[in-house]
Amino acid sequence: MQSPTNVDSARGFGFALAAYVLWGFLPLYMKLLSHISTLEVLAHRVIWSIPIAGAVLWALGRTDDLVAALKSPRTLAMGAITAMLISLNWGLYIWAIVSGHALDAAFGYYINPLFSVLLGAILLGEHLNKAKVLAILLALAAVIVLTLDAQRFPTVAVGLTLTWGLYAYFKKSLPIGPNQGFLLEVLLLAPPALAYAIYLAIFSHDSHFLRTAPLDTWLLLGCGVVTAVPLMLYANGAKFLRLSTIGMMQYIVPTMIFLVAVFMFGEELGKARMIAFPMIWLALIIYTTSLLREARAASKSTKPLDLSRVELTSPDK
Hints:
Layout: H1 10-31, H2 38-60, H3 63-70, H4 73-98, H5 102-124, H6 130-150, H7 155-171, H8 178-204, H9 214-237, H10 243-249, H11 252-263, H12 270-300
């Protein structure tokens, strides 16, 4: 939801910028967990997000909303769908970072806004102007370039795009606020996450929590902080920023992931990526220019721009 006057506020900008920067540095944290299995890291992201999200909701005095959601079969069913999608997104992201595919993750998050636009056109019947069609075609061409070069489909990049795009689409229909929705999702994911963590600790003895180096335990505990805090900062910041401002800020995260992957992780760009990334950057320039023109036109008209139809990128939700 935008602020009532549809203007930027320093508070909103600060919240959103903090969220995007934290997400941008998240690969550095996840790389420290590269010796731990993706499923174990994912389980602890879910488990330790619950007390943080719960404390925030309690401080905001919005726990009644969550209780009502837990009593609603329809809300629970919708929450189960978004929980499944976000867990797939998290798991794929973790695997990408620890397996040396951070560049693929960056590419996937660059594609996110364009996929959301395409999803809106297909499922919601939204109109696509020529600029947006061109941007989507450029993104598709970039995916084809990567596929032809590697002789395999870019599963990580497209998987991150699909899981987050569909998550964002279904999230629109979840009849509770973003903070309540996040806590509902991790609560629904908690039983399998706890079951897997207990299985590792008792039956397989492969658990890294409280069993190996103390640093591993602290890093797994910290997964809750690095998951919940940026999400809640973003959710609260987006309410006080214009659509065009968030549209420009959303590229901070994939750009930071790209720079970290190349200059800190030493991942190789290669010829295909050196073609595909400029193609997607050009597509995003075209898309963002079109978005800004629509925002300016809407501000001059008496009819406000329907902001509810536009879904912006929040990587690694």
